[in-house]
From TrEMBL:
UniProtKB keywords: Cell inner membrane, Cell membrane, Membrane, Transmembrane, Transmembrane helix, Transport
Chief place where the protein resides: membrane
Bilayer topology term: Multi-pass membrane protein
Domain of life: Bacteria
Cellular location(s): Cell inner membrane
Name used for this protein in its record: TRAP transporter small permease
UniProt record similarity statement: Belongs to the TRAP transporter small permease family.
Residues in Tripartite ATP-independent periplasmic transporters DctQ component domain copies: 55-191
One of the Pfam families matching this protein, by short name: DctQ
Database matches in InterPro entries: DctQ, TRAP_DctQ
Transmembrane residue ranges: 40-64, 84-107, 119-137, 165-187
Amino acid sequence: MSDQVPEVIVPRQGSTPARRTPFGYLTDTHPRLDRIQNGISAFCAVIASVAIVVIVALTALEVFTRTAFDAPLGWNVGLVEQYLMMALAFFGTVTAYRAGAHVAVVTIFEKTPEPVRKVLLLITYLIILAGLVLLVYSGTRAMQFSFVTSEIPPPGMAELSLPSWWWKSIIPVASGLGFVVVAIDLYRELTTPFSRVATDYEPGIHAEEI
């Protein structure tokens, strides 16, 4: 047997007091902004959760029809790839961001003074916002092109014969919601003293001996 003391990975409490909820955090400084962010996160979580359930159900149905009747659905592949996976990825990312579910390497971050943390957070938010702006812009252009040209898969194909702009709207809509959530975090950092971090709720995990 090993003589080493076992370790457990636990969430690290950030420097900003906050209460964790299923879809985000609650603070005493900006409760209204918290409700906006958590509401958006919850809305995105519902969409992502429904997508997961439908993917599982369609997969089980596909296996059943293929095995029992030798009659694959066919259209389920396009529905999963274009609608459900897109919704899961982009809406789920918004919830994961707000709930602190993304992987975070904080070894250096947590050892720096608060002014340095604040600068790092501001840079991070600006980079994320720039990426979301590009996603909204490019996604909107793609959606608009499909709408104007009435792009739709012809009947009888593997894809559902639905307007293509429907699934192409997922990217700009989810990215726009994510933009609002991140912009609120940026606003909080910009409107608090430079010596204090406002959005360091739970930036990572660390190991504790038990």
